[in-house]
Specification:
mainly alpha; two-stranded antiparallel sheet; about 55% helix
Length: about 110
């Protein structure tokens, strides 16, 4: 019930805020792939929030490629002592979708 409720909320929020289909799809994929277990939308849980990631890399033309690689291959030391484990089950297409969505997050205040 919890996962269904969470997915329904993401879809509803996307519709209410006028988000594109790609944004809604990325939000659903992030939940389905387990990204939301460690990352919040704005704040840090285990790893940084998506808005924090977007803020760090805003304006960096290499950010999307780096983030796609990090999603699939993992990283160590990028955000302190936190380890981003490899996610080989994430397809290249999903990594591209997620990277674009994460980097498109608005700044948090």
């Amino acid at each position: 019930m919890g996962l269904r409720c969470g997915l329904a909320v993401l879809v509803l929020l996307s519709a209410l805020t006028g988000c594109s289909r790609e944004t809604s799809e990325a939000a659903l994929r992030s939940e389905a792939l387990g990204c939301m277990r460690c990352h919040g939308m704005v704040t840090k849980f285990v790893g940084p929030g998506f808005a924090q990631i977007a803020a760090r890399y805003r304006g960096d033309p290499a950010a999307a490629a780096r983030l796609r690689q990090t999603i699939r291959q993992g990283s160590v030391g990028t955000w302190g002592n936190v380890i981003m484990p490899r996610q080989p089950q994430v397809s290249q297409a999903d990594a591209e979708l997620l990277a674009a969505w994460i980097l498109g997050q608005p700044p948090s205040d």
